[in-house]
Amino acid sequence: MNSIDNRLFKLQTKLEQEPKTKYKRPSRVQIFLIKDDQVGRCAICEEILSQDTKHIHVDHCHKTNKVRGLLCANCNKGLGFFKDNTRALERAILYLQGKLIFL
Questions:
Q1: pLDDT digits over 27-41, tens only?
Q2: In 10 A of CB 70, how many CB atoms?
């Protein structure tokens, strides 16, 4: 086994040992139905979502794995950076509004 084959074997073994997520991405039909419910727009910023389902971000609760909605790339990244911390998001809003009080 050469070094490339050895590295591929190690990578494959590592991937097989990682726990599988319970979250399952909705089908293209389900995504189109959700997109229709959202009038073709991101659930947060209301930007028009891509026509290609590969570029639509399906947001889901990491505790329940339930789909919350469809997001654009920027909003999906933003929520990811906040790690679903609603208190931090509320403080970010207050900060942007100039109303944040430091205790």
A1: 999 999 999 999 999
A2: 26
